Model the fold of this input.
Amino acid sequence: MRILIAGYFGKNLVGDDAVLSVILDDMRADGRFSDLVVTSAHPRETEARYGVRAVKLDLACDILSELSSADGVLIAPAGGINEYAPMLPFITIDSELPYNRLCCDLPMQAALCGKPCIIVGAGVADLQTHEGFNSARRAFDMATAASVRDCASLDALRGCGAETSAVEVACDPTWAFTGRTDDRTEVARLTGLDPNIPILGLTLRHWDLTPGRLSPDSQAWETELVGGLSAFCSKTGFQLLFVPHQALATWIYSDDDAFAERVGANLSVAKWAIWRQAITPYGAFQAIAACNLSLAMRHHGAILAALAGVPSLALSYSPKVRALYTDIGLGDHVIDMSELRADRLASELLALWDRRTIERGRLAVIRAERASRHRASVNQLLKVLATPFNLSLRQETALRRHFSETWLTSPFDWGRWRSVDVRDLDPTDIGCDSGGVRSLTRAMAYTTVVDLSAEVRTISVHITHDAERGFVGLRHVQGEDIASVAVSSSLRGAIARVAVPRGLATGPYELFSYFPEPHTLSAFSYRLEQRK
Done:
């Protein structure tokens, strides 16, 4: 059977690559799935590393092409069902596909193509918008079968209105990951640390605690972190080893290496180092297993520490971190980032070190239970994936709800659409027009004025054109853009949805379309959709 495996792979992100490693092992051991295709940011690297075919992670057209020839879909989103970035309301087939949108849209696409789709060990958290709640609900209602990785994710789905009676609380697939735990001397050699002195492993990342803000600047909590680490090391003589889980230099939120450098430069400790080897789950596990204690912000850094038998304390920057520790009975090992203080961090690390023998015994029980839970859950899900597809009543109900609530009916209900004669659109540039069709020999932006009330949630735009690419969006009258979305070429009409931000003042706004190349525009209609 040919299976499309969708996840945030090929980003050199330790946690998601660990999930992929486990899922591939599970499917190969099952024996029914001989042809595996994986979504990846860097397909060639993924193909070389894992021996599978790979398709570009953010290209909707390529993914849908693979879906059409697959026998089923497995989504391993890890923590991908979130709104660290807002859930965009509509993505065209030729646009770049945000990961949260991929996770939420594939189950419905699979059902429409008559393919079974399972979701394995999903994390659901940090949903903020109406679109985010609806998309998460639709993903699980449309999946043939699904599991989540913690109880908090199930609660989040219930809060979205999802039908959760068939959603199992399993665990993150990483709990079944295996790696080497006998390389302390080698790790010390590679990092310059002393193998005879205790090491505190750090899986940290940059994070802005202000909701909705993604500032790259140093944060106040970093001062408390540095103070706590310095105090702990001065009392115990510990060395520090930063273990990056991602090192993409294009953005500080994905560059644990740069963050480690920034924190390390402010430490007043005798010895610290950064794990500079390849950013892979095997390398990260090797480094963490060489440590005596762990301080984790990264969700999968905490799991790898537990798998290696290394007692850990967590800094919770997201609900998913506390959810992990709560589910395994270690909720008292978590400090919420908003409550981080240097003296508390130092004292809790000292207490953890004092009871390290007891903690190692607890971790042995936890990892055995989690691995067993994963295997039992994934075996059941793979049975579903190997079964011929039949649309369930739950899925049929979800489809009817989706198409009755959103922008598309079949056929189009033009009575609710407001048609605009393309010759009446106000152009930024002037081309020639005739017979209700506007043909342009250069780039062109068009605008028409719409009057918005506070109840308007989304503007759906139906536009017929022959340009290869374009955009529609909303902006202040003669002012700055508010929101925009790409539209695809469509001689029969493309539809895009522009999300209207909450709290936007009522009044007139400009609904605009823009095409950066020669084109013909022959129809333009829009519809205002109210908030539920």
Observations:
- Confidence is low (pLDDT under 50) at residues 406-416, 429-442.
